[in-house]
Amino acid sequence: MPDHVHLVGYPNQAAYDIAEFRKSIKAPVAKQALAHLEQHAPEWLPKVTHKRGSRTERLFWQSGGGHDRNLDQPRTLHAAIDYLHANPARAGLVAKPTDWEWSSAGWYHQQAQGPCVVHPLTESYLDR
Question: Which of 17, 13, 22 is nearest to 67 (CA)?
């Protein structure tokens, strides 16, 4: 989506810290995105620049934890994936979910892999 990201992740370990997981993804993306804006679209910098007390900072991501949640049932996981796939079509960006190149929808429907690498869920997880 042009204004937000959805991600379904699967931890490699039984015990994990979702805040650390989120930080490991968001920090490098924000750094690269802000550097890109500085170089190619400095007119956007005021939109991501905020004052917090006496400090000025640039925030690429919206503040807060987002809508993180654990999906621990196959039915819930599949419903979430279906919702995410339909998002671009609901927003009127494409005619059908598989047309959105930045989605795994095409991969799930046996079409070509887009620019986002999809790692299939194991059958053992889906059958839990």
Answer: 22
Backbone φ, ψ for residue 2 (5° rounding): -65, -25
Rounded to whole angstroms, the Cα distance separating 108 from 82 reads 10
Mark 50-68 as b/e (b = at least 16 C-beta within 10 Å): eeeeeeeeeeebeeeeeee
CB-side exposure of 111: number of CA atoms within 13 Å? 12
pLDDT tens per residue, the chain (128 residues)? 777 888 888 777 778 888 888 888 889 999 999 999 999 999 999 999 999 899 999 998 887 767 777 888 888 888 998 999 999 999 999 999 988 888 888 888 766 667 777 776 655 555 54
